[in-house]
Structures are given as C-alpha cells and as structure tokens.
Amino acid sequence: MSKKAEIVAMTESELNQEALIRAGEILKNGGLVAFPTETVYGLGGDALNPESSMKIYAAKGRPSDNPLIVHIARMEDLKKIVKNIPAKAMVLAEKYWPGPLTMIFEKSEIVPMETTGGLNSVAVRYPSDRIAQELILAGGGYVAAPSANTSGRPSPTTAAHVEEDLGSTIDMIIDGGSVGIGLESTIVDFTEEVPLVLRPGYISLEMLQETLGEVRMDRGLLITDEKTRPKAPGMKYRHYAPKADLTIIEGDEECVVKEINKRAEQNARDGKKTGIIATSETASLYHCDSIKVIGSRMEEETIAKHLYEVLRSFDDEDVDVIYSEAFYTPQMGQAIMNRLLKAAGHHIIQV
Ligand code: TXA
Ligand code: MG
Q: Are 219 and 336 a contacting pair, CB within 8 Å?
C-alpha cells in the first residue's frame, strides 16, 4: 500500500521543533524520515532497531549486504557503538567532526548486523547540519542513514529529488533546501593498520595525510578489473547511472570541445539525441540538443554541488547519449571523478 510522505520545510536557523519532535517519534517507532545533511539527503531509521534497517533496504531497493552509516550528534555517543577508537581517529574527529567525514570502527554488540550488512565493523558519521543533528537527538541518538535515493539513482541534493524517489514509501521528508556540498562524505576505515580511504569526498586524501601522516586509498577504487573490488560494498555497484549512455572525454579544452561536437554531429546523422555536461567556460562552444552547465572550472564547489542534479535532469529528457568533460579539480577532483566515472561505467576517452 502506498502512502504519501509528509513534507515539512525548515532551515538551520529556523528549526521547526514541533516537527522535529514528531520526526523523532516516527524514528523511535520504527518509521523512516528523510533529512538534509551537509553532503546529500539521508534516509533515516533507528540504527539500533534491526527492523528499521530492513525497512531502509526495502524502501531504497538496496541489497541488504550493503551496510548503512550510523549518524550521531554527540561525541560522547561514539563509544557505545564501537569497540576500539584508535588515537588517530580521535585526532581526525577533533579536526573534522561534525562534518563530511565517516569513520569505520569495530562495532559493539548493540549495533545489529542488519545495520552493518552482516559486517563486524560499523561506519559512523557526525554531520554538521543542524537539522540533521536535532533529528538524530530527537530519534534517540543513533540514526542509520544511506543517501535518500532509490538504489542506482544519483544521490539526492534537494528534497524534491527525495520525493521523486521515495515520496510514496516513507513517512516524512524534512525539506532543508539545497545541500551545501553535494557529494557523499569521505569514508576512512580505521579497522586497517594504515587508515584506508574507502570513498573520496570533500575531505581529500591530501588533507587526511596532512593530519595523520600515512593514509592509503583503497586500490579497488583506482583499478577496475574484476579481481580488485572496492572494500566498501556500496562502491562496487554502478551507481549514479543516468538512463542515457555517458562517456567522459578528457584532454585539453580545445580538443575536448572539438571531439564532443564531432560526435554530436555524427549522433544527429544517426538520429540520436546528444546531451553535454559543460562548464560555463565552454557551454557556448557546443552545438547539440541539450547542454547542461555544471559550473565554472574556477569553482569546484559548484561543480560538486551540481553533479547529481545534472545527471538526474538528463533522465527527464529523451537524450540517447551524454558526453561530459573531466573535472580533475584541486580538492574534490578525486571525489567528483570517482562519481562521474561510476556514472559512466568507467567509459573515458582521451583526446
Ligand atoms: O554523506 C554521506 O555519507 C551520506 C549522508 C546521508 O550522510 N550517506 C551515505 O550513505 O552516503 P550510503 O549508504 O549511500 O553510503 C555508505 C557507503 C556504502 O558504500 C557502504 O558500502 C559503505 O559506506 N559502508 C558502510 N558501512 C561500512 C563498513 N562497515 N565497511 C565498509 N564499508 C561500509
Ligand atoms: Mg548512496
């Protein structure tokens, strides 16, 4: 039976306490509430209730061996759900929590296997968004939350995206406007001898190394053969896939523009519609059916923030083929290209 999620709007500076208390009650009673964070919208359920986690998997259509991140809103709540907190993790927490950082630890007994996808480790994040924090506290302190999209679609960066995917399967959506960052948190695994990045995000490998010394990047993220699988179960799926075929064209600007225009013309002759992910610097140089400006090359924050929205918007148009420029920007380039490469099924052409 499908119901309609209640949608309540609020901002970080004007919280709706009455709605937050009700949202907390929904969570405590085993229901699901979608909420904004600084990275992407999350689909929250009580992390300590196995049935809530099962409901999350069902709502997203997500395989139940893909573990959920447990969100907290008080530093002192960490020790109840994990067994070992390495000194380096504390250093990182002091620097980046609350914020777009998820850390993986050995889990304690109270965290159900349903939440961790059967693993003995648990991923924990302390988000900086005030709406998220208040909701977590209202819901009892431990909220399991994957991104609030249907499995396989781009993560939601607005409440409207959440409504599109989950509006008829969950209890409430808190609309806090557009998120700040637009890409999911950086995940660092502390169950390894050397801290291991399982998913790049706003906090880059270089920033982590600056704070911790040696940090490694999961080889499974860089190599794409069948044997080298990413350690985070969720990173192995072809996520964020638009309906049309996406190809990344990489090289210097002039060559990229020429190559994409050439391909767009050929597509037109073949009766296929072309979409392009361009920057404000290049948009006017392209000729094709649909050109989306992701942002300026000078502002990587804008590119990160618009990536998922742009990928989603192509799904509402009938383009057959999409080309994108590459975005190896200084801080978030690894994260942006990781998501874009996954969306493209690693189809990249150098010119
Ligand atoms: O920014 C974010 O982290 C957002 C917001 C809502 O906080 N959440 C998010 O959750 O991106 P999700 O479920 O879409 O992605 C979680 C990723 C998956 O790739 C999952 O496999 C991995 O984290 N993960 C979770 N627990 C893990 C564990 N114990 N070991 C290895 N990977 C884990
Ligand atoms: Mg996700």
A: no
Report CA(322)–ligand 1 centroid distance (Å): 28
Angle at 336 between CA 285 and CA 85, to 5 degrees: 170
Protein residues with C-beta less than 5 angstroms from the ion ligand 2: 147
Q: Nearest CA to 116 among 66, 82, 150?
A: 66
- pLDDT above 70 covers a percentage of the chain that reads 98
Minimum-distance ligand to the CA of 153? 2
**Helices and strands (H and E) in the chain: how many:** 11, 16
Helix (H, G, I), strand (E, B) or coil at 39: coil
Task: Tell me how many degrees the CA angle 195-198-204 measures, rounded to the nearest 5.
Answer: 75
Per-residue pLDDT tens over the stretch 110-158: 999 999 999 999 999 999 999 999 999 999 999 999 999 999 899 999 9
First to last CA, the chain: 51
Pocket of ligand 1 (CB under 6 A): 37, 39-40, 42, 66-69, 102, 104, 116, 119, 121-123, 125, 145-147, 184-185, 187, 198, 231-235
- Which strand ranges, in their side-by-side order, compose the sheet holding 121-125? 6-9, 172-175, 33-35, 42-46, 143-144, 69-71, 121-125, 101-106, 186-189, 196-199, 216-217
> What pTM value is reported for the model?
0.97
- Whether residue 208 contacts residue 65, with contact meaning beta carbons closer than 8 Å, is answered with no
136 to 49, 128, 267: CA distances (angstroms): 14, 12, 49
- Helix 130-138 × helix 17-28 angle, to 10°: 50
179-205 pLDDT per residue, tens? 999 999 999 999 999 999 999 999 999
Rounded to 10 degrees, the C-alpha dihedral 279/284/286/290 comes to: 80
